[in-house]
Amino acid sequence: MSVNTEEELNRLVHQAIDSRLPGIGVEQRVLEHARERITREPAPRIPWMPLGRGVGGAFIALAVIALLGGALGLTLSLRNHSTSAPAKTALPILPTSPPATPPVVVPPTAAPSTALVFTPTAVSFATASDGWTIGQVCNPSTCALAVYRTTDAGTRWMPVHFSAKVDLGNATLNIRAASSADVWIWGASDGHGLLVATHNGGVSWQSMAVGNALVADVELAQGTAWAVTTCSIPKPCTATLFSQPVGGGAWSDLGALPAAVGAPIDNNSTIPLAQLVRIGDDAWILDANQQGPALVRSQNNGRTWMSLPLPCTVGATAILGASSPDHVMLACGNEGAFPAPQEVWTSSDGGSKWILRSREGYNSGFSPPAANVGSIDSGGAPIGLAVLSTTTAWMANDREDDLVTHDGGATWIHAALPPDSFGGGGGAEGIGFVDSQHGWTFVPGGIWTTSDGGTTWHLLPGITVPAA
Amino acid sequence: MTSLEGRSGAVDVVPSRDAEADAFEAELRPLLQEAVRLATGMLLSAVEAEDAVQDACVRAWCRRANRRQGTDLRPWFLGIVANQCREVRRGRWWRVVRSDKPGDSSDAHGDTSALIDLRDAIARLPYRRRLVIVLRYYLDLPFDEVAAAADCSIDAAKALAQRGTADLQRALAGEQR
After folding, report:
1. Sheet holding A171-177: strands in order across?
2. Quick check: A20 and B49 CB within 8 A?
3. CA dist., res. B84 & res. B82, Å (int)
């Protein structure tokens, strides 16, 4: 097929996309669901524009002028980090040197008008004080990838030089920290896999070639980092498990994944879906593919794997967590609806048998309908799970607040986090704990941490980038 | 519906939250069809498009104070929809890419392989080129409105459309080889 004229392009684009349009009534559904969410949103506590119109208008005009000036500065300073060009081959990651005198970004309590704000897309703390985050800084026309680390629990964040070519519009990136020095960044960008690690605090980065594969997850245990790869339909490959010593060294190939979790991603997607969970010698791989989900477990450090039953309702996505080799929790959700139907299951034998702890939303619209169990009271779908013990677990929810259970998953309560950033905003992006007391959670607007087991959460000062 | 709030003897008429939501909904409703088309063009999935527009409506409500008084809602709202689609494309880590129904395949709609190739080529376009291509050739917007929704100059919108078209032509020529 060739496209030689604008009219021809117009006609073909209409034909190609029209068949993907939602069915009749979509506008009404959208409005009804949005209205329901708006109704649940708390009234804003602080007026957006506290100043009088005249003074406020002048303030905003100054801020816009400053921001535009700042944006120009950022564009120039980040030219070598351009992320707009899509990668044509495997992403080249070269060892790099940090800036001669890396500036320390001391986040102010309020961003100065000349600063651009960093938006986190993934966060990982190795200890209560040592944390890393990857995200982006945008000016009005472009966005740039950025990596920061902290060694004082987020009071100060230091920029880390990271030169991966990433198409931010088509990338899923994640980060896992083992210490202030050892960090892995992985994911997919424009259909290419990415797996890089630093073992010197970001002074240099080493890349791992994964061929056609995408990198789905990295987990740490027993002094090693394991990386799970997955394949996409357009680029066939063998989904594989790789291992690297936490302190650095060569990657070793632990072999192909079991067939149950090694199939390519459905729907021609290039977003990796497999999740890896490790506790000592035990490991689980969950393929959260909605059309062929599967769960496997190894009890001998990845040498052999066995398939486990998945109790989630058909069509659900799922996320797994474990507090011990025996105690495993599975949170399932049927995305799309609001509120999203959800279930939480636990196992006390590593996943061979499951017990339903809570369920909501499957009592209508599903055949056969299933009665509610326990209490979840969540509109969103689970996207993060931190299982701390047989009783306590934290759940991050898409379009919803973070939830916590203290009774093994039967009842969930909303965390003490600002609802206008979580449930009333876009929802949580992730959650994690380094121990029973110290944890973090984040949304695009900021990172919150707790040092008292989630009784109180504190918003870390925003990471800002000087414009000039 | 209005509520009266007394303050220091004066009486201000303040629209209630319900009334404000009603007014906002009424203003938004005529734009939804276009928003759904934009989201479908960007995401190429009916389910994800519906979700994205729903999220965009909530975001628009939350950010309604950011909209300048007296300005047209359309480019502002389409910009929010576009941003929402960008975030969906970026993908939350554990968010599953859903198909419209189990077993849904690329040619389930009876499309020819040429149209499937074109759809794949659109999906592979970088975000801003894809956005401009969809706004221009699927929503059929003039370039000044494309530029407003894409938050760029008219010249930049034209350049992006040109590059996007060239990308599509190259991709489709490659498929033929």
Report:
1. A171-177, A183-189, A192-198, A206-207
2. yes
3. 5
Give the contacts of B101 (CB within 8 A, at least 6 positions apart): none
Torsion of the alpha carbons at B20, B21, B26 and B30, rounded to the nearest 10: 130
Please measure the distance between the N-terminal and C-terminal CA atoms of chain B and give it in whole angstroms.
64
A40: pLDDT strictly greater than 50: yes
Report CB contact under 8 Å: A15, B111. yes
pLDDT of residue A116: 81
The complex's ipTM works out to 0.80
What is the spatial distance between Cα B156 and Cα B131, in angstroms, rounded to a whole number? 12
Inter-chain touch B28–A33, beta carbons under 8 Å: no
Interface test with A, best of B58, B118, B122, B168 (most A CBs within 10 A): B58
Q: Which residues in chain B are closer than 8 Å to A174, comparing Cβ atoms?
A: 93
Residue type, B166: A
Closest to A88 measured CA to CA, from A190, A188, A215: A190
In tens, the pLDDT along A205-224 reads 999 999 889 899 999 999 99
Kindly report the nearest CA distance between residue B102 and chain A, in angstroms: 6
With H, G, I as helix, E, B as strand and everything else as coil, classify residue B47. helix
Compute the nearest-CA separation of A329 from chain B (Å).
Answer: 16
Q: What does the alpha-carbon distance between residue A264 and residue A361 come to, in Å, rounded to a whole number? A: 30
Is there a contact between A105 and A458 (Cβ–Cβ < 8 Å)?
Answer: no
Cα A303 to Cα A297: distance, rounded to the nearest angstrom: 10
Name chain B contacts of A233, Cβ cutoff 8 Å: none
Q: CA Rg, chain B, in Å?
A: 20
In chain B, the domains with their CATH numbers are 14-92 (1.10.1740), 110-177 (1.10.10.10)
Residues 6+ apart with CB under 8 A from A84: A142, A167, B126, B128
**Maximum mean pLDDT: which of A274-283, A337-346, A394-403, B43-52:** A274-283
Q: Report yes or no: A265 and B97 within 8 Å, Cβ to Cβ.
A: yes
Stated as kind and residue range, the H or E segment containing B11 is strand B10-15
Contacts of residue B43, Cβ cutoff 8 Å, sequence gap at least 6: B49, B52, B85, B88, B89
Burial environment of residue A468 by CB neighbours within 10 A (0 to 12, 13 to 18, 19 or more): exposed
A17: number of CA atoms within 13 Å, CB side?
26
Provide the strand spans (E) within A199-327: 206-207, 214-221, 224-230, 240-245, 252-256, 274-279, 282-287, 294-298, 306-308, 317-322
Backbone dihedral angles phi then psi of residue A211, each to the nearest 5 degrees: 60, -130
Average pLDDT over chain A, rounded to an integer:
79
How many whole angstroms from its chain centre is CA A283? Answer: 21
